[in-house]
Design brief:
Elements: H1 2-9, E1 18-19, H2 22-28, E2 41-45, H3 48-60, E3 65-68, E4 83-87, E5 94-97, E6 102-105, H4 111-118, E7 123-124, H5 137-142, H6 156-159, E8 160-166, E9 172-174, H7 178-187, H8 189-203, H9 206-215, H10 228-231, H11 235-243, E10 252-259, E11 261-262, E12 266-274, H12 277-281, H13 284-288, E13 294-298, H14 300-306, E14 324-332, H15 335-348, H16 364-375, H17 377-382, E15 392-397, H18 403-416, E16 423-427, E17 432-437, H19 446-464, H20 483-487, H21 489-502, H22 557-568, H23 575-591, H24 598-602, H25 609-620, H26 623-634, H27 636-656, H28 659-672, E18 685-687, E19 702-706, H29 709-713, E20 714-717, H30 726-736, E21 740-742, H31 754-757, H32 762-779, E22 787-789, H33 792-801, E23 808-809, H34 811-819, E24 823-825, E25 828-834, H35 838-842, H36 846-856, E26 857-861, H37 875-878, H38 880-886, H39 890-893, E27 898-903, H40 906-916, E28 920-922, H41 923-929, E29 931-933, H42 935-938
Parallel strand pairs: 2-4, 3-4, 19-21, 19-22, 22-23, 25-26, 25-27, 27-28
Antiparallel strand pairs: 1-2, 5-6, 6-10, 7-11, 8-9, 8-10, 12-14, 13-14, 13-16, 15-17, 16-17, 18-20, 24-29
Helix pairs in contact: 2-22, 8-11, 8-21, 18-19, 22-23, 26-32, 30-41, 36-41
């Protein structure tokens, strides 16, 4: 049936959106949860229209489907052994209305991006899951995620205004459109009758009515949202709110509108340290009486998992056993109001025993660090697990007045079952507690031990403390067998009626939320075997994916890791399949990886998948290839000189031949050579002029200038070939500021080695790096003179690996630190684009790039959807699809009024120019254009 479906799908979808290769099914079938199923087919949907076509086919053929957004779900909601429908990159439109008070979103918009747009109006969406920067709106709503926000007030359920729903048969219901509702009431009268009958059954039973009311006094996402039947009378409204938290089992949400909440401009937080978790639980009642935005609990093991994070208090390492922390946030519209709220919190907690005095942070750096650590706590804690063990996260909620007794009981239960290294954290305001278990199911008796633990946990939460088994992570597979226990048989039967009414054939995410298999929660556990030291701590959470330039082309960092683990541990059906996996990984895993390291910034434990790929490249190099690399390294000056002449020759040829002919010829040569000959493009630079190291002035202010090898080879593109090349312009700019320029000896043979290292020639890269380091130390008088390198990527490598005595700068920081006061800036009346390279981002220079550009131009635009450009050294020449994919949204982000673009990497600038329609150059060109010599400062 799957083969027939694939054939039919090819008639309605582009072939590139249909995946049946094992590598793609394995990779895309991976989510953040602790279960593993491999879909038989993966289909990417980029619009509501495509969802309709897919569902019409699967419904008619009785084929099960599962929806996946970002795959950050933790309970097994977004995995399938049938057909997986993935939200594609184009399903991400949004519209802000009512000056920020409302936002309309497609399901592919990431929550963090939505908040970034709303922040301009002083608003944010209500849900605030820790994964918000990675999670997509479709998944946030489908799981009724809430996170640190007050979960029974500002969750998805309570802030949704309307939605468009694609039903299992492809019918669309728009709850904001009267005509759509009228048509739906005709076409789906049976569904509406079922909903009405379920409501009447509840209303007629005081016992059911009371139980449902009581269950939603605290956070509860176990089963379907039965409160919908109490909160609404109209069946369409009930349907819309049943969709929230339904985990893709009732239909597909193709668009929704949120009523947003105010995002106060004044915020502060405090890390409270308490002697034990019981004392922490005592704070819930007084904190609920204050204006508190969040109160995040972290037990001693959680604190151990993050104690090495830069910016956290050193005292974390010395806290006594059992100590617990609370991250408490309060926000207001004014500083005066914020002060009153802080004082109120301190007063309300006067009877609470804290290990240290309560002291709110007064700077954004600490505030951001604390919250970044808290949001990444799950991943950080999971990274501490013993090698090869499973990661299981549970999510329970207790009434506030029972928390003081419940939290110690949970910890005692974990200790009884040998989970002494478990980690506990959560949202204290809601009584919502998460804990992480790390069982080794390879050891005898561990599976039975876990089953016994779960049964006792269910009893403790439901019977002893009248809590809920799921507060926000969704029921998924791991709590599906216990839904009936929490709700009772009568309400569980009503939930089954809900499922049957929406999905009579049971093809929407079957096995999730409603499951008759009492053992499903211990089946298909995802293995996390050892594979490589760089990636062994990864739990495949997916936080890394949003910054990856190849995410829409081949694989993401999470997927590279998942597939590599499978290959390393022979996780395939047979030897043929394993061989195919290795073959496919060469392109999808290795060649198309930009190795830019941005994934490490998003990863709470700093896993740089690109480093692993570089290690693999190094091991794959033949002796002949290494000899060739060594020859190139030893004859670098001659090779760069040849490259300059070749570029000038190609430029002359382009002046003789039309662009289409050049493109066709370039493509032919590129293919014939097996991609070894760089692919020509219209922004191919001309050769750079020889660096003139003789032109100088005498001055007490000195700078050591190292023009990178790229800028010694690549000049401007043909559109501005008459302008000075970057090395010439930098000379002029430095001299304008009154600097005497010093150059290292033998400049033409010097290179930071990155070009070799990124291709797997580690030794040759190290040799070139140390050669350059020695030259810079000599020329800078052992670090007395600052060093300027005109390429951020090269500078980043130098800064990471070279002697710390060297004062190393790229153009942004050097201009702000050394040129700003020596030059007089005049804002040019123009709109410019800026692009922060991966290396600039890793050095924390994004804001400084914007700040520098704003000194020079009246309007500066830093694209919000465009990250790494994917040029990745020379991949823009030999794998242009990576650059095209990475810059997919750039053209749309360039307004018609923009006149130029600026960055700090010549190769990145080629790709940016190619895909933006603007000419991108070094930021130093803009600085030179906007400045004159500051005679007062210099004199």
């Amino acid at each position: 049936m799957i083969k027939k479906l694939k054939i039919k799908l090819q008639d309605v979808l582009p072939p590139k959106q249909i995946y049946d290769q094992y590598i793609d099914r394995l990779a895309k079938g991976t989510d953040a949860g602790f279960y593993r199923l491999i879909p038989q087919l993966v289909v990417v949907a980029n619009s509501e229209e495509e969802i309709i076509k897919i569902l019409e086919l699967t419904h008619s053929m009785n084929i099960p489907v599962t929806f996946k957004a970002a795959g950050t779900s933790l309970s097994g909601q977004t995995i399938s052994d049938a057909v997986l429908i993935e939200i594609g990159p184009d399903f991400n439109k949004y519209k802000i209305e009512k000056e920020g008070a409302k936002i309309v979103l497609q399901p592919g918009v990431r929550g963090g991006f939505a908040n970034l747009q709303l922040a301009k109006y002083g608003y944010k969406i209500g849900p605030s899951p820790a994964s918000i920067n990675a999670a997509k709106i479709g998944g946030i709503v489908a799981n009724n995620a809430s996170g640190a926000s007050y979960g029974i007030v500002t969750n998805s359920y309570n802030t949704i205004q309307s939605m468009r729903i694609v039903m299992v048969d492809g019918t669309v219901l728009d709850t904001a459109c009267d005509e759509s509702k009228r048509e739906f009431k005709t076409s789906h009268a049976h569904l509406l009758r079922e909903i009405a009958e379920i409501k009447q059954q509840i209303v007629r039973s005081p016992q059911l009515l009371e139980k449902i009311k009581h269950k939603y006094l605290i956070k509860n996402t176990t089963g379907y949202g039965m409160n919908s039947f109490l909160d609404f009378d109209d069946s369409v409204d009930i349907i819309a709110h049943l969709m929230v938290g339904s985990e893709g089992t009732l239909g597909f949400i193709s668009e929704l509108s949120f009523n947003t909440i105010k995002d106060n401009s004044e915020k502060t937080c405090v890390l409270l340290f308490l002697p034990d978790i019981k004392e922490a639980a005592k704070t819930i009642i007084p904190l609920r009486q204050c204006k508190v935005s969040a109160a995040e609990l972290m037990d001693r093991n959680a604190l151990r998992a993050v104690e090495e994070v830069e910016g956290l208090p050193a005292l974390l390492k010395d806290l006594p056993q059992g100590a617990t922390a609370l991250l408490v946030e309060t926000s207001a519209e004014s500083k005066a109001q914020l002060l009153l709220q802080k004082q109120e919190i301190i007063e309300k907690l006067v009877d609470i025993h804290t290990l240290f005095p309560i002291s709110f942070t007064d700077n954004a750096r600490d505030y951001n660090t604390y919250w970044k650590v808290r949001k990444g706590l799950f991943t950080s804690a999971a990274a501490t697990r013993p090698n090869g063990t499973t990661c299981i996260i549970e999510d329970v909620t207790f009434p506030g007045d029972r928390l003081e007794e419940a939290l110690p009981a949970i910890q005692q239960l974990m200790e009884e079952h040998g989970y002494k290294d478990s980690v506990t954290w959560g949202h204290l305001l809601d009584g919502n507690i998460h804990f992480l278990l790390m069982p080794d199911f390879e050891k005898q008796g561990q599976l039975q031990n876990y089953k016994a633990f779960m049964n006792k946990l269910v009893y403790l939460v439901v019977d002893r403390f009248n809590g809920s088994l799921k507060g926000e992570h969704g029921t998924g597979r791991n709590m599906a067998p216990f839904v009936e226990y929490e709700w009772g048989s009568e309400i569980y039967e009503l939930m089954k009626k809900v499922k049957a009414a929406f999905d009579p054939k049971n093809i929407l995410n079957p096995g999730v939320l409603i499951n008759d298999d009492p053992e499903v929660y211990v089946k298909n556990i995802k293995p996390l075997p050892l594979a490589h030291p760089i990636i062994d701590t990864c739990i495949e959470c997916g936080f890394c994916e949003s910054s990856c330039p190849s995410q829409n082309l081949t694989l993401t960092p999470r997927q590279r890791i998942a597939v590599f683990r499978a290959m390393t541990n022979n996780q395939a059906i047979d030897s043929r399949q394993l061989k195919e996996l290795h073959k496919a990984y060469r392109y999808k895993g290795d060649e198309s990886c930009a190795t830019d390291g941005l994934c490490a910034l998003n990863c709470p434990v700093g896993i740089d998948t690109g480093k692993m790929i570089k290690e693999l490249r190094f091991k794959q190099k033949t002796k002949f290839a290494r000899r060739m690399a060594g020859f190139m390294a030893n004859h670098f000056a001659q090779l760069t000189n040849i490259a300059r002449h070749v570029l000038n020759g190609v430029h002359v040829l382009h002046r003789l031949l039309p662009t289409p002919v050049m493109q066709a010829g370039g493509m032919a040569l590129h293919k014939i050579s097996g991609r070894s000959i760089p692919l020509w493009n219209r922004n191919m630079p001309i050769g750079a002029p020889q660096v003139n190291t003789g032109s100088n002035l005498e001055s007490p202010d000195k700078v050591l200038y190292f023009p990178s090898c790229i800028n010694r080879m690549f000049g401007n593109d043909s559109s501005n070939r008459e302008e000075a090349a970057l090395s010439q312009l930098t000379q002029q700019l430095l001299q304008k500021a009154g600097y005497q320029i010093i150059y290292p000896d033998n400049i033409n043979k010097l290179c930071c080695g990155m070009a070799f290292d990124s291709k797997g020639f580690k030794r040759e890269g190290e040799n070139k790096l140390h050669e350059l380091e020695k030259a810079l130390l000599t020329a800078s008088q052992k670090g007395d003179i600052p060093v300027l390198c005109d390429m951020s990527p090269c500078l980043y490598r130098m800064k990471e690996r070279m002697d710390k005595k060297l004062k190393l700068y790229e153009p942004i920081a050097f201009t702000l630190d050394y040129l700003k006061d020596k030059l007089a800036f005049t804002q040019q009346n123009e709109t410019v684009m800026v692009h922060s390279t991966c290396s600039s981002t890793k050095m924390g220079l994004n804001d400084k790039l914007v700040q520098l550009a704003q000194l020079c131009a009246t309007e500066v635009i830093n694209p919000e959807k465009t990250g790494c450009c994917g040029w990745a050294g020379d991949k823009g020449f030999n794998l242009p699809a990576l650059n095209t994919s990475a810059l997919k949204y750039l053209k749309d982000e360039v307004p018609a009024r923009a006149v130029a673009g600026y960055s700090t990497s010549r190769t990145c600038e080629i790709g940016l120019s190619l895909h933006s329609g603007l000419n991108y150059q070094s930021i130093l060109f803009l600085v030179d254009k906007a400045t004159v010599r500051n005679e007062i400062e210099i004199n």
